[in-house]
Specification:
The structure is a homodimer of 391-residue chains. The first copy, chain A, has 391 residues and is of the alpha/beta class. In chain A, 47% of the residues lie in helices and 11% in strands. The two termini of chain A are 36 Å apart.
């Protein structure tokens, strides 16, 4: 087990009708805010009205910036930064899923920064200073951004998709009402599940020894998703299932599950190239890439993959042939993704397989860097993983 | 699943040699502090020297208040409050286990309060206002006080042991080096385990429906203790085992595991009377009381006790007779406590059984209130539980 520092201070306000608390909660931080959201879905559902009524009731003025797209764009972020500066806005309220929250975090970091906000994502600047505080009303359990220290953005200039992390961009609060997720279509629900599971598995597949406690927390969180997602897809208004998934999605990515462990994150990097170029849903991309990554790396640590199979998927351990157990776990995961309606090959994503090498090249900055830590992957490895994802 | 608010903002600094960061960490909060600790053990181990050197290196002045006893006393707390007021101290550093931390929290709450600090514990005052911030260097995984919102104190005037809770008394930071627990005797290690497990089980045994995720987190944390405590007792310097127990002990009681659930806490209340009157170790008292409580209440919710048996203790579910499975789980717990050297009857605690009724009476303020929520227990019930604990 490695030394670690952990502090996840986001205040979680969870349950039915909790969005009605948003005005009072925002008021503790600011009287004037940027209200940031995506498209029409929060208007159609009535959430927009409930949020703005609550803000007005608490005397909170707001300027709006809508139009966040899935795989949020740096161009809109730049617009948001200008808007905040011009109007002297000290707080951002994100109403939506991970894309809206990540966009809000980027605006928050960019407002006090002299250079261009993309610097944080390109690696040109490492240090976020005094970002604006961000609050969240969550509508989609997936990215875990509501309590995470990270943000992922897409730059249309070259279609780069990059992440950045800073303890300072964790949201102040996250309002989470599982009822707000009733209207999510089955496919989006499933994509969210793949994203949540990937956040756990990026931490689970580690070579760090003696991490029994966090192993068990990871397994508990994975099992929660595996049990509850089919129920939520079957019956979109099952409060219990929606609630388990929503809360598990936050814990999956607030850094608790990674405490004391080396994390991997290669699969995320490999997937980002897919969704940057083809604009596929991140969760769908992960459902394709993660099993392929597993097949490529599992021999590196068969006991860990066997543990995954036994403890997460209830597969009986094959004492004579642990590798078989390890492989069964990977097949179970792939089968689970397929069973909830997710693509499990690049072809099923509706993507051509003629740019695999280009993606492997971009992933590694032209083979100048490696991805992951469970196994360090170069351009050639990643190309092989893309090929495995085609089968 | 119930609505909830959750915010556990204590910064955890975990791992080898982390106590060397204490001066720098304190310095972020204050230049003058109260250094609060127990007896000679931190001097004997050298921890006192390392902490004070780090404070001095960072220019932090400190006034000392030693002498915290197990089951910490309100008299010392009153002395600490006076000391802080007289010297205009804005921060308290607790170096020790739960008793020292609880004592520090009480001082922190008492300094700005006009009345007597016991008011917070007796229930006379419910509201803690602007307590001093507290930091922790933890030496004993047990109470979970290093990241909890609660404090338990004993009043020598009548030997009352009472708890209080406030979000404002959560420590700012907790420095946790598992190596500091190497010198804990086997019995104290085992008492800590019982305390940690009790914190989880007080949350686990609930009638709240649809709490799949937190059930699984509870089970994961219990299994971590069950696996690692025998190793730590066998080999006190096993870093991995000590580390799992220490981190699990914090998560057991930082409120995550209780999110969305009604909690019980009857066993703690019943045990407090024992340790208030007889000054027995809290964990040892819990090892005696918890199985007795279980035997008294399990019929109220056999499926939950069967789940405990199957998922925590790997007992095969008896489909024809689930009650048998439930009872096997209770026996397994009792057997586990005995196997790590804990008493499991009141007699083994070295306590007479002639004051059971008096304790049941004090527990319930003379049968005027009930304890617990899984089953609401009056004086007569608690008397029966004390009797079951004698078998």
């Amino acid at each position: 087990m490695n030394n670690f520092t952990f502090q996840s201070a986001t205040k979680i306000i969870f349950g039915r009708d909790t969005e009605q608390q948003v005005g009072a909660e925002v008021k503790k931080h600011a009287n004037r805010i940027l209200l940031h959201y995506g498209g029409g879905s929060i208007k159609k559902s009535g959430l927009y009205d409930r949020v703005t009524v609550s803000l007005k009731e608490n005397g909170v003025e707001f300027i709006e910036l809508a139009g966040v797209q899935p795989n949020p764009r740096v161009s809109l972020v730049r617009k948001g930064i200008q808007l905040c500066r011009d109007n002297n806005i000290p707080f951002i309220l994100a109403v939506g899923g991970g894309s809206v929250i990540d966009s809000a975090k980027a605006i928050a970091a960019g407002v006090p920064y002299d250079g261009d906000v993309w610097d944080f994502y390109s690696g040109k600047s490492q240090v976020v200073n005094t970002p604006l505080p961000v609050g969240v009303v969550l509508t989609l359990p997936a990215a875990g951004s509501e309590a995470s220290s990270s943000s992922v953005l897409t730059n249309e200039d070259g279609w780069y998709k990059k992440g950045m992390g800073s303890e300072l961009i964790r949201p102040e609060f996250a309002i989470m009402n599982p009822e707000l997720t009733y209207t999510l279509p089955a496919y989006q629900t499933a994509c969210g599940a793949a994203d949540i599971m990937a956040h756990i598995m990026e931490r689970y597949f580690t070579n760090t020894q003696d991490v029994d406690f966090t192993d068990r927390l990871c397994e508990a969180t994975l099992k929660t998703i595996i049990e509850n997602i089919p129920i939520a897809i079957q019956n979109p208004e099952d409060y219990a299932a929606r609630a388990q998934v929503m809360w598990a999605g936050t814990i999956a990515h607030n850094d608790l599950l990674g405490t004391g462990r080396e994390e991997d994150w290669a699969s995320h990097g490999i997937e980002h190239e897919l969704s940057a170029i083809y604009d596929v849903a991140h969760g769908a991309g992960l459902a394709v890439i993660f099993p392929a990554w597993m097949k490529y790396v599992y021999r590196n640590n068969i006991p860990r993959f066997a543990q995954f199979a036994v403890r997460v998927w209830n597969i009986e351990y094959d004492f004579e042939n642990p590798e078989r157990t390890a492989l069964q776990g990977i097949e179970k995961l792939k089968g689970f993704f397929a069973s909830i309606g997710l693509p499990v090959t690049i072809q099923q994503l509706g993507v051509e397989d003629d740019r695999l090498e280009e993606m492997a090249d971009k992933c590694t900055d032209g083979d100048k860097k490696t991805l992951g830590s469970f196994v360090k992957l170069g351009k050639k490895d990643i190309f092989e993983i893309y090929k495995l994802a085609c089968e």
